[in-house]
Write a structure and sequence with these properties.
With 317 residues, this protein is of the alpha/beta class. Helix content is 38%, strand content 20%. The chain is built from 12 helices and 10 strands. Strand 8 and strand 9 form a beta hairpin. Helix 8 (195-204) packs parallel to helix 9. The model is unreliable at 1-17 and 43-59 (pLDDT under 50).
Length: 317
């Protein structure tokens, strides 16, 4: 009874559907991502980026980046950082200190524009992206980092300054859950550029910040690339490309009608071998161009498909 009352006070969505059934991300589903922290932390060796990305180190590794010193343990230090070998040799407790442990900030830039409201299996891309953002948030707080978010819904950008106060996490998750549900109601808008969110991120964050940009990057024009490259000059940027299986491979053989949302319909035949090859080539070209862009500006890259296990796909290259 006490637990349910506390949950209602913190998350204010006690009556909300606990499962969005892949159409939207419920608060309960975003809270549940906290259960994956241990699994993700155990993968830290696989999460370290490769030399292809400029040897950028992963913000998901855990507390701190590099060992700064080993000093005598003092009251209040985390017992997880105790160096047991040195402690045994000195016959008194010693602890490890990491050089970025005191002021590390983790941000998520979450794209919830209409382009993310698409899915052919399991769940919409927007739901997967929301779960990734929640997972990074929980992991950041577990590592005693400060966590903040920039959420873009296609027209508006919502900014949450980084803090290690756990009371801000419910506020962020509630907003994300509300926006993923609002996406189910189509809105007529001509502005879906992620550039406004990238500019806001550039204006507000400091140097030595880790930023995870979670998007399908469908509308990555020159203005977005410029803002993203500027962001990479003062921050460690991680691009998480969320794509649906249907975007990669044409549907099974047959005739399909596609609407562009503006009254125009197109019928195509997926049995045509040339069409299927061009379909696959278009996806590969788009992905390769973005990967080349990431390598040029030292942006770590990962791709996530909703039809597969989430944690196992968060490998940055």
């Amino acid at each position: 009874m006490v637990l349910n009352t506390l949950k209602h006070k913190l998350f204010m969505h006690a009556k909300q559907n606990e499962n969005g059934k892949g159409l939207f991300a419920s608060v309960s589903e975003l809270i549940a991502q906290r259960q994956n922290i241990a699994y993700l932390q155990n993968m830290h060796e696989r999460l370290v980026t490769s030399n292809q990305a400029g040897n950028v180190k992963s913000a998901l590794k855990g507390r701190g980046i590099e060992l700064e010193e080993i000093r005598a343990y003092t009251f209040g230090d985390d017992i997880r950082d105790i160096d047991w070998r040195v402690s045994a040799r000195k016959d008194m407790p010693y602890t490890k200190v990491y050089n970025e442990e005191k002021d590390r900030e983790i941000y998520v830039l979450l794209d919830l524009s209409p382009y993310m409201a698409f899915g052919s299996r399991f769940e919409l891309k927007s739901v997967t992206a929301a779960k990734i953002a929640a997972l990074i948030g929980w992991l950041s707080l577990e590592n005693k980092d400060r966590f903040g978010a920039v959420v873009f819904d296609g027209t508006q950008t919502f900014f949450y300054r980084a803090t290690n106060n756990r009371s801000t996490m419910p506020v962020i998750l509630n907003k994300i859950a509300d926006l993923t549900q609002a996406m189910l109601t189509p809105k007529l808008t001509s502005e879906c550029s992620l550039n406004s969110a990238l500019k806001m991120m550039n204006n507000y964050i400091k140097e030595r910040v880790s930023v995870f940009v979670i998007s399908s990057f469908n509308m990555l024009g020159e203005s977005e690339k410029k803002s993203l490259s500027q962001l990479s000059k003062k921050s460690r940027v991680f691009g998480v490309n969320v794509f649906d299986p249907l975007e990669k491979t044409a549907p099974i053989k047959g005739e399909y009608m596609v609407a562009d949302g503006k009254g125009k319909n197109l019928i195509f035949n997926s049995a045509n071998k040339l069409f299927r090859a061009e379909y696959q080539q278009y996806f590969d070209d788009k992905k390769n161009k973005f990967q080349d862009f990431c390598r040029r500006f030292r942006i770590a890259y990962a791709e996530v498909c909703p039809a597969q296990d989430l944690c196992s796909q968060l490998k940055f290259y």
